[in-house]
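Human: Here is a favour to ask of a fellow structure person. Comparing notes only helps if you start from a blank page. Give me a protein, with the fold worked out from its sequence. Please set it down just below, with no commentary around it:

Assistant:
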Amino acid sequence: EQHKMLDYISLIKNDDFNLFNKLMDNKITLVSPDAGAEKKTLQVAKYYNGLDIIYATKVRDTSTGNIKETKITSVPDNYIGQDLLIIDDICDGGMTFIKLAEKLKELKPNSINLYVTHGIFSKGYKPLFDAGINRIFTTNSFEQQYEVSGLRVVDLWNRG
């Protein structure tokens, strides 16, 4: 799955944000949303010549499963004014990313962006955009609405 994530990210070209160029030119800071995403995020950072990473954790209420708190645990020195890219493998309802975006806004980034390989988006895209996420990048492993402003979908089935 990790190797595929690198392949899918590299397919994101010709978008209005120039994500691929920002990754190649070290002009973006990655965000690991939780312990489960750390290894994947680190692999992406290494692949793109050592991008900086902001690390976060979430605390869940064990009785309800709801996120009680999101904490940013590690921030590189030069994050100010950077574009941020949250990296993860899946987004269902999006609460992890909504709570994280609210915390990341305190860092006053240039933009907050989200890449997930598998976007279910069971609550839709709007709550993510409303929380401060500027752009969402995903694949069509689940059916997506291609015409949503701010959404960029990599077509896994038709790469030609």
Remarks:
- The CA atoms of residues 60 and 68 lie 5 Å apart.
- The helical segments are 2-10, 19-24, 38-47, 95-104, 126-130.
- The radius of gyration is 15 Å.
